Backbone:
């Protein structure tokens, strides 16, 4: 990744997509280390974390993570998961896609930053990345080719100024098993990932 000391940086983390990529690589993300890593690379303006949450559950496994991130330097963007019944099959599905929220925030902030780091492999973001690049913003995309299946869209990888495989950042932002900080587990993240599809 090429950063300059004066770069104004913004992070955009697609929570369910990053969770799926990290799980595919067997990496437990240490979000404090993640923030520290990018603070070393320039002037971190904002770190957004996006996730959909099931509201009618008495306890959500995502709540401890969301609360910790909210108190520790991340701007949290959440919305309720929607449930719907598929016509014809009667199968109950969930929907919690955060693409619009990410796109709006990225476009709004693009005038105030030099470098955007997008933690997602979703090909739907290719056109968004192209739009912010036209405004003079460099874009690094972080996802993985090394999971089965790969989590990064080829179109998004080609559009990015730089693609970084999450596996290559594991030592910098992964949680060591000796780390006493609590381990956050996104129990419903697989369901949320299905919802983003």
Residues:
């Amino acid at each position: 990744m090429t950063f300059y000391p004066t770069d104004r940086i913004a992070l955009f983390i697609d929570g369910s997509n990053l969770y799926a990529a990290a799980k595919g690589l067997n990496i437990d993300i240490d979000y404090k280390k993640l923030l520290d890593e990018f603070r070393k690379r320039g002037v971190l303006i904002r770190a957004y974390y996006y996730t959909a949450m099931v509201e009618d559950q008495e306890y959500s496994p995502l709540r401890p993570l969301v609360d910790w991130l909210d108190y520790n330097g991340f701007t949290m963007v959440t919305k309720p998961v929607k449930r719907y019944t598929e016509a014809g099959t009667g199968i109950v599905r969930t929907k919690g896609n955060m693409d619009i929220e990410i796109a709006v925030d990225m476009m709004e902030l693009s005038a105030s930053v030099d470098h955007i780091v997008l933690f997602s492999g979703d090909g739907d973001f290719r056109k968004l990345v192209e739009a912010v690049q036209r405004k003079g913003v460099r874009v690094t995309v972080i996802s993985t080719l090394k999971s089965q299946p790969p989590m990064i869209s080829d179109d998004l990888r080609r559009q990015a100024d730089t693609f970084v495989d999450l596996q290559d950042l594991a030592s910098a932002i992964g949680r060591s098993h000796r780390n006493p900080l609590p381990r956050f587990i996104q129990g419903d993240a697989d369901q949320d990932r299905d919802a983003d599809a």
Observations:
- Strands lie at 8-14, 43-53, 75-80, 82-85, 92-95, 115-119, 138-143, 162-165.
